[in-house]
Amino acid sequence: MGTVIEMRFLRLHPRRQPPQKSWSVVADCSSSFEAEVIAGLLRTAEIPVFIQQDGAARAMGITIGIGAIRVLVPTPL
After folding, report:
1. What value, to the nearest 5°, has the Cα angle with vertex 29 and ends 57 and 12?
2. In what order do the strands lie in the sheet with 69-74?
3. pLDDT at position 76, please?
4. Among residues 77, 26, 2, 43, which one has the least CA distance to residue 52?
5. How many CB atoms lie within 10 A of CB 7?
6. What pLDDT does 12 receive?
7. pLDDT of residue 8
8. What is the model's pTM?
9. Residue 71 pLDDT
10. Which pLDDT value is given to residue 10?
């Protein structure tokens, strides 16, 4: 059961540091919903994706004026 919870956490929160060294921003989003939709489309096409958001903005739930949510893909794609 602990493994299932950990796997769900990784699936729902793909905001950890990416393993590859070089990533390119493909979208700057104003909401986490928009970023997840874009990331879902990329994952459907089997493209690795990473969502990056500033910690303060994520903690407060505010993205306007504090920081954007960025969708990244590996550069040598």
Report:
1. 70
2. 23-29, 69-74, 50-53
3. 75
4. 26
5. 10
6. 42
7. 38
8. 0.62
9. 93
10. 40
The answer to whether the CB of 57 falls within 8 A of the CB of 63 is: yes
Give the total number of structural domains in the chain. 1
Straight-line distance from the first to the last Cα atom of the chain, in angstroms, rounded to the nearest whole number: 35
Distance CA 42, CA 47 (A): 5
Q: Which residues of 16-48 are buried (b: 16+ CB within 10 A; e: fewer)?
A: eebeeeebeeebebeebeebbebbeebeeeeee
Tokens of 3: 């493994």
Question: What range defines the domain where residue 16 resides?
Answer: 2-74
If you search the block for the tokens 């004026």, which residue do you land on?
65
- Per residue in 11-24, pLDDT tens? 444 455 555 568 89
